[in-house]
Write a structure and sequence with these properties.
Residues 9-94 form the Major facilitator superfamily (MFS) profile domain. Pfam families: MFS_1. Keywords: Cell membrane, Membrane, Transmembrane, Transmembrane helix, Transport. By secondary structure, the protein is mainly alpha-helical. It is 89% helix and 0% strand. The protein folds into 2 domains: 1-39; 41-93, no CATH class. The model has no long low-confidence stretch (mean pLDDT 85).
């Protein structure tokens, strides 16, 4: 690989990570407000978000093993799809 290609890959990686971090920040900041507008109690909101972050934490290590088996790109894509489906269920919940 040429040095210019490596720098392009690194810059793309940084941009994706920055956008992902900003998305998580907006998600965390607005989810409470969204759930409150659906008339969830604070206990229900905290249980949901606690479970969300616990599952995220517990799946970090297995995702490395899955990435080694199926490839990093496929793992990241499937992770985004699964997370999107989960969030879709949340937003479709009346």
């Amino acid at each position: 690989m040429k040095m210019k290609e490596i720098k392009n890959i690194i810059n793309t990686y940084y941009i994706i990570n920055i956008l992902y971090g900003m998305g998580i920040a907006v998600f965390g900041a607005t989810l409470y407000l969204y759930m409150e507008s659906l008339h969830y109690s604070y206990a229900e909101m905290n249980i949901f978000l606690s479970l969300f972050w616990i599952v995220s934490f517990l799946t970090e290590t297995p995702s490395g093993i899955i990435a080694d088996t199926f490839g990093r790109k496929n793992t990241i894509i499937s992770s985004c799809i699964i997370r999107s489906i989960g969030l879709l269920f949340l937003f479709l919940n009346p």
